[in-house]
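Tokens for DUF3870 domain-containing protein. Go.
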Amino acid sequence: MEDIFVTGYSKVPKGITISEMYSVIVVSMVVEPATNKIVAADCSLVTDLSRKYVKDILVGEDLKDFKVIEDKFKRKYFGSAKKALITASRICHDRYMNTLENCINFD
């Protein structure tokens, strides 16, 4: 089965470093349809550590079960972009679910 690439965008709060560079944050994920697991992830946060931390939160999670991902962000991430990251990740979830519902053949 082929992997699926999805992205989600969300406005960032004013006054944080990323808002000086971008007006939106992007979260991108590669998902394996056979397991719904996120196998790779990235985001447009400014620092390497922030991007790595978000990646560590997302990789290995089941994208169909967004509640687990949202709870993980709420429990572990206390940066200023938390709400924007959750929103962008939810958009990834929604796009992935829409892709699955549209019965795209992955074989």
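The helical segments are 17-21, 48-58, 66-76, 82-101.
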